[in-house]
Write a structure and sequence with these properties.
Elements (H helix, E strand, L loop, with lengths): L3 H5 L13 H23 L7 H15 L6 H41 L1
Length: 114
């Protein structure tokens, strides 16, 4: 796995910006770099409680950045790993909840017997 420093070392080409007026290119390029860093941080900060739409939007933004030459493979991989871990946590939580519900059912049955 790449370190965060390696991950953030990018050499975008910004070729799509050639169609934009020259006096606007630099600002747009800086905006793309800031967006990349924001996406990396957002992926690192993804929480179990975040809606799926947040992860989907981050993935779409990675696709947009890829068109400008950003190397997003490692970031995408980290996002998928994070989402995979969250999915596993959800499964474990569901199993634990089912066990708790069964235990509550057993306790209620015992109370009714007494």
């Amino acid at each position: 796995m790449e370190s965060m420093e390696e991950l953030l070392h990018q050499r975008p080409h910004f070729e799509p910006l050639l169609a934009v007026k020259e006096n606007q290119r630099e600002g747009l390029a800086i905006g793309c770099m800031v967006t990349f860093m924001d996406v990396v941080e957002a992926i690192r900060s993804l929480k179990f409680s975040d809606p799926k739409s947040v992860a989907d939007e981050l993935q779409e933004t990675l696709l947009d950045l890829e068109r400008y030459g950003f190397q997003v493979g490692a970031v995408r991989e980290r996002a998928n790993e994070q989402l995979g871990r969250q999915h596993e946590q959800l499964k474990l939580s569901e199993v634990e909840m089912e066990k708790e519900v069964e235990e509550i059912g057993r306790l209620q049955a015992k109370l009714e017997e007494n």
